[in-house]
Amino acid sequence: MSKIVHVESPQQFTSLLSSSRIVVTDFYADWCGPCKAIAPFYEQLSNQLSRPGQITFTKVNTDTQKQIAQSYNITAMPTFMIFKNGRETQRIRGADPKALDSAVKSLAAEAAASSSSDASSSDASSSSSGTWIGAALPRNYTDVTSNVDVLGLDFLNVDSAFGNARTVFDTAAPSSLGKSKEGESKKDWIESDTDEQLMMYIPFQASVKLHTLQITSFPPEDDEDVMRPKTLHLYTNRSNVLGFDEAESIPATQSVTLEEKDWDPKTGTAKIELRFVKFQNITSVVVFVESGDGEGEKTRIDRLRLVGETGESRKMGKLEKIGDEQGE
To answer: Which superkingdom is the protein from (predicted)?
Structure first.
């Protein structure tokens, strides 16, 4: 009996992405010759490697599930996508058994190794793929941080003695998490410079729907001058970073004041639940840290994680068949 899951709705696909560590997806069409040619090989891989909760093989019919195909900008048949912990890691266009076999078996070996070394606790501070998150993901939503356009990041008032804008999106666990002071020599965090305020412009490679912003901060206990963020203002779909005076003069999409109880003592992470209706089609977000939680002059951020859904950023063009039938 085939172990492939045939996706019947966007909600089912979202659920699969959140319930299985690795999801392999075959985007196909009934009229596509190359899709039919590689189907037996794909089913063979599924029968060999499927493991409940670990590796799930799925098929998405692009004719009946157009919303899903549009969400992932599928324009060629077949296209294979591989997800780890809800995040796209690889895309293979065309009926290429060798590339598909190599990619899937490599991930299967990684999943097996991760499973054997994984702790049985429910602490969400790390994932099996090595991608660190600070808090459990809301049901039916995924970590969409991989959609951040790191080349377009623009942070203001960041002390150059520490990390840069990309540092807070590092997939590794913060060096300060459960580490001695020796671990902090990496300085894998950012701190504000001339005062406590930070301005962070975060563009995306494609539109997203944001549900939650996770902020991780580990201010040192022996330095009262360094604080966690307290008051934040978020602005959506800006074309560039805002100046500090400019941000104070325009309405924020959402403003948040964090309290001590909002910070998880184990992971140093606060979850900011966004007004989802206002964060439905987001191409960029500006996060303005207006004040820190204390009397100090420095605000520290170790990690930022964005949780939500990949949006429908592009209209699906005419689908192509890729394979021998096109002479490729």
So the answer is: Eukaryota
